[in-house]
């Protein structure tokens, strides 16, 4: 029941840069980022870090 109010997961740029594109796409999907499937690694990182 407490899951709905869980704090959103935050990532550091350095942490994201060590991940694969597939891992970044999974995070982007979870954050409901549109167009993530056609993004490259740099764009994915930027989108994930955006507020």
From TrEMBL:
UniProt domain Rho termination factor-like N-terminal: residue ranges: 15-50
Domain of life: Bacteria
Biological process (GO), any one: DNA-templated transcription termination
SUPFAM superfamilies linked to this entry: Rho N-terminal domain-like
Entries under SMART domains matching the protein: Rho_N
Pfam families: Rho_N (PF07498)
Name of the featured protein: Termination factor Rho
Organism: Clostridium botulinum
